[in-house]
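Form P-L/3: holo structure prediction, ligand glycine.
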Amino acid sequence: MKNKSIIIIGGGVIGLGIGWQLAKTGASVTIYERDRAGRAASWAAAGMLAPLAEAHTEEPELLELESESLALYPQWVQELEADAEMSIGYRVEGTLIVGLEADDTDQLRHLYEAQQHLGLDVHWLNGREAREIEPALSPRVTAAIHCVTDYQVDNRLMVKALQYAYQASGGILHENSAIEKIVIENGVVSGVQTQDGLRETDVVVLAAGCWSAQIKGVPDAIQPPVRPVKGQMMALQMEEGIAIKTVIRTLRARYPTSVYLVPRSDGRLIIGATSEEMGFDTRLTVGGMFELLRGAWEAVPGVYELPILETWAGLRPGSRDNAPILGKTPVKNLIYATGHYRNGILLTPITAYEIAKLILTGETSETIIPFQLDRFLK
Ligand code: GLY
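OUTPUT (holo model):
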């Protein structure tokens, strides 16, 4: 049904991506965004497309979803760059997970074996081989896992491209417009209460990231179990001699914070991230910044000389089991697309394509069945 009216709550990459896919078919789509579009987790992210490096060995269905979304990226990039008439900084140089000194080697080997057990495309490198790929790595790097197919995209460029493509396709965007309530009548969604009054609609998509559980009107039992998980980040300016090409990650258990370094085509080097249960607190802390700098400096000592361009903290929308919440709910025509936690940028294509398909055809594909809300209701 082409002329359905759809309201999407949340103008991050998930809401914009779904909205863009729907608006392109001629559907009537309106996004309500509490702040500026794409300026929350979508902006704070590092843009790593890393199902292998972040492999969830105990969560094979999530790994499968992430791998499927990564496989969609070339098509997604081509379609979005054509519609938005701009590059989104998709880069395919891969990722190195590095171990420092002998202490890390056992743990790195353990991770490598788990990845191999899952059949992932990973390669073991000694320190010299790792430095051949990335000369800026420390001489203390004794081993590395090369995740050749873990890529990256510039998430801030993707936000800009999605906003442009969505609006150019006829999608309506209201920024600084928080939704007060989802209106449900007799188990069917009928509209949303905005700051300017009631807006009726056929379908509501809840894509409000870590704010998803705060929208009133949804019965308590089916509130999405999503909470904010704080990540402190910074960006440095790369200079000659420290022009990193691959994404570099340190091991998870070396210090409280595993650090990643993500080189952008414009010369920025993104360093992240802490993982903190601090509610909606986005203040930077000395400890957080220290952990990032220590981890980055140990892996790539040359960062010591680099200027700091920016510091920030974002809030990941973490669900109870770390996987996204996608698809139908017990309320007719209320669709969830939230809880993407550490992988929102990676999971944007599959979420946008699958949720748009669900709304247009009424059919839930096999791909998203394991990620429906009902897994928490059993
Ligand atoms: N995916 C990286 C992070 O959440 O920090």
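COMMENT: The chain has two domains: 5-78+155-225+320-377, 95-148+228-319.
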